[in-house]
Design a protein that fits this description.
Mannitol-specific EII, Chain A; single chain; 3 domains; Rossmann fold; six-stranded parallel beta sheet; Na+/H+ antiporter like fold
């Protein structure tokens, strides 16, 4: 093979892969069909246009690429099949895959024979078999875009995935007969192909599911391993019986999806991305082989044949399949119109065309590609572009998803859920894997379910959740919240996914995981405990708080009307909220710090040496907690300071440790006007020292006090007032007043 030929092969694959990925992205961005863009670009870049694409340079390798790519596409389709969706319309789906397939095949073959009497019946049957398939490559993007009611969604999805291997097997049966294989041998080969596909598919699916569920491979390799396993399974089945690999990977994908292994959603997402790349590549490679004049020659007679396929054959096939079902007339009309063809039809039409050309039957070879690609272009252009308008006109689209799912069924989430429901939001669903929390929520009359929110398939399993259009992740694990957010962003979009995360997560926000809210609040379960102990309270109001009042309470949410919910607006956003509405606020009474800090634990000192400062503060704490070992505590504080300095800057330090000797939380405050010898990051002398000591078994309370102190000293005016005030009682009032400036610096 010369260098020029190798260069043509390389550039053909580069253009096909890059162009396909870019064009599919553009189509997704502008919510239009990618197939028209792909076919049009293939014409422009191929021999009919700029001449950059040379698919013939790939030789027989093109068939290998096409066959393997189709197998991977069908594996992804099998992963997305939903058993509950099938049960909801099992009779119609079975009939569409049997009665509908036969009707499409024979009626289309009859129309071809009628309009092209020179073709043999065997060829007519072969050509007709190639337009049986619809396929997930065109149905899935369509369903994602138009949001059909669940019943119609499931019917089209199941038909699209399962009809591909059925159509392929029928096409292969016809093709083998056309090329001279004896009818009996062809039928036996068909049964062998089906048996091998089912057998290898079931075995392969269970093996892959077992490996994934038992975590026999590293979790970060699930996607790569699943990809490799699907390729291997396809090859093994195909080696046993030609084209059996297509059915085997479809069945294997279905079994893996049904078994729900860990990170199934991640595997599906990876396979969906691979499918997009493969679809783009295949359409460009295959379409670039076409010539403009063959469609001109197809002419008016060909256009009539395509029209018969669209407006006669599909409605007839659907009508016969729907006899005795509960489908309404408008549902039958919609399903009878929507049947776009995709890459499976295109790839097998190209493969058949190449084989017939090699056999010397050029008229048939040209016809099959012209016919199938005309059906693809017409169905995509007419049906994909009109399906959304038709579904909207007929009332077959799901209503806009306005509901909320709250991940976590603890007390704080339950209070939020009640507020949302009272504000007219429906539905509001609490999701938790803790059955006790779910039970408590149900006792309060809330819709709570045992759901692992990491798995998006819960929406498919529970069709009523299709009206959930927003998510708030409120677990204590901020990393888990971020993971849940990342997965739901793919489904709902960033503007509809919220999660609790700590202040540290806001320093480098990642837009792919949703929006962080309430980062200044403690963990949700800790907030639940505060609410239960009446150390915090949630308040509702019908008018917006003033900016001064808003400084005394943390604004959680504001419902401006039944359509809009604003979560966690910043102080700068508060003034832009409407005056009237339904508002929810949180008042935290700072009891963690207030209970730990007492007048006898506050002192003014001229000491600068850390050992002396810590000895003085620990001595004060020991008079409150007589079980405190002063020497060990001072040593622990000094060691902590040596390994992890606690000076924050701006003249503040928060030395802190936990101790098994303590039974209560303590906070001692030293005012050091002359400065103490801490290693401050900004070089300023430390003049305010908050020493925090907590029981070893109370990490949540310890962190809560640290967070409250850090929040208070972040205010320059507060630091100045705390340093200047000499009355310990007054200092405590100032700290409490930081939370309640509108209440006279005291508790209301």
């Amino acid at each position: 093979m010369d260098q020029h030929h190798l260069h043509e092969m390389l550039m053909t694959m580069v253009i096909a892969l890059a162009g396909g990925a870019i064009l599919i992205t553009i189509a997704r961005r502008f919510k239009t069909s990618a197939i028209i863009l792909l076919i049009g670009s293939a014409f422009a870049l191929g021999p009919e246009g700029l001449g950059w694409l040379h698919p013939e340079s790939l030789g027989s390798g093109l068939r290998v690429i096409v066959s393997l790519a189709i197998g991977l596409i069908l594996f992804e389709g099998g992963l997305t099949l939903d058993v509950k969706g099938y049960r909801g319309a099992s009779l119609l789906i079975r009939r569409m895959l049997s009665v509908g397939v036969l009707t499409t095949w024979f009626v289309t073959a009859g129309a071809i024979k009628l309009l092209y009497p020179s073709f043999q019946v065997s060829y007519c049957l072969l050509f007709a078999s190639l337009v049986i398939v619809t396929g997930p490559t065109v149905i899935a993007p369509l369903l994602r875009r138009i949001r059909l009611v669940p019943k119609l969604h499931n019917i089209l999805h199941w038909e699209g995935v399962l009809i591909d291997p059925i159509g392929v097997f029928i096409a292969l049966l016809c093709f083998e007969y056309v090329v001279g294989v004896a009818a009996g041998v062809a039928v036996m080969t068909l049964f062998l192909r089906i048996a091998a596909g089912i057998g290898f598919g079931i075995a392969g699916g269970f093996i892959l599911a077992f490996i994934l569920k038992r975590r026999l491979i590293p979790s970060d390799m699930y996607n790569v391993f699943s990809f490799g396993f699907a390729v291997m399974l396809f090859g093994v089945a195909d080696a046993f019986a030609t084209e059996a690999g297509l059915l085997s990977v479809t069945i294997a994908g279905f079994i893996v999806g049904l078994s729900r292994p860990p990170d199934l959603e991640s595997i599906r997402h990876f396979k969906a991305e691979m499918t997009d790349i493969l679809i783009g590549m295949l359409f460009i490679l295959l379409s670039s082989r076409l010539k403009f004049e063959q469609f001109v020659d197809f002419g008016a007679r060909g256009a009539l044949l395509v029209a018969i396929v669209i407006v006669v054959v599909r409605p007839l096939a659907l009508g016969l399949s729907a006899i005795g079902t509960d489908l309404r007339l408008k549902e039958k009309a919609f399903l009878g119109w929507v049947a776009p063809r995709g890459i499976v039809a295109a790839s097998f039409a190209s493969a058949v065309g190449l084989s017939l050309a090699e056999k010397g039957t050029m008229d048939e070879a040209i016809f099959v590609e012209s016919f199938v690609y005309s059906v693809i272009i017409a169905t995509v252009a007419l049906q994909e572009l009109s399906a959304g308008l038709l579904a909207r006109f007929m009332g077959l689209q799901r209503p806009p998803a306005k509901g909320y799912m709250l991940v976590g069924a603890h007390g704080f989430a339950r209070r939020l859920a009640r507020f949302l429901k009272d504000g007219g939001i429906e539905p509001v669903v609490l999701a938790d894997i803790n059955t006790r929390s779910v039970g408590d929520a149900r006792l309060e009359g809330l819709d709570a379910r045992v759901i692992d929110a990491r798995d998006l398939k819960v929406v498919e399993d529970q069709p009523d959740l299709n009206s959930v259009g927003n998510l708030i992740a409120l677990t204590d694990n901020e990393n888990l919240n971020a993971l849940i957010g990342q997965r739901w962003v793919r489904q709902l979009g960033r503007e509809r996914v919220f999660f609790w995360g700590s202040q540290s997560m806001t320093d480098s926000p990642d837009e792919s995981i949703g929006r962080i809210v309430w980062h200044e609040l403690p963990k949700p379960t800790l907030l639940t405990e505060e609410l239960q102990r009446r150390e915090a309270s949630l308040m509702t109001a019908n008018t917006r708080f003033t900016e001064e009042q808003a400084g005394s309470v943390q604004l959680l949410a504001a419902i401006t009307d039944e359509e809009k919910l604003i979560l966690g607006p910043s102080k700068d956003q508060i003034k832009d909220l409407p005056e009237k509405g339904k508002f929810l606020y949180l008042r935290r009474e700072a009891d963690y710090l207030a209970l730990a800090l007492r007048p006898q634990l506050i002192t003014r000192t001229n000491l600068a040496d850390l050992h002396e400062v810590f000895t003085q503060l620990v001595g004060m704490a020991a008079r409150v907690a007589d079980d405190l070992n002063t020497e060990q505590t001072v040593a622990a504080l000094l060691e902590r300071e040596r390994t992890a300095p606690t000076a924050l800057g701006h003249g503040v330090a928060i030395p802190h440790i936990t101790s098994s000797d303590l039974k209560q939380r303590l906070c001692a405050l030293a005012q050091a006007p002359n400065g103490a010898s801490f290693e401050a990051p900004d070089g300023e002398p430390v003049r305010l020292i908050f020493m925090i000591l907590s029981p070893a078994d109370d990490p949540e309370g310890h962190l809560a006090i640290l967070a409250e102190v850090a929040r208070i000293v972040s205010d320059a005016k507060m630091r100045e007032r705390l340093l200047e005030e000499s009355d310990p009682g007054r200092i405590i009032e100032i700290i409490q007043g930081h939370y309640f400036p509108g209440s006279g610096e005291g508790r209301s």
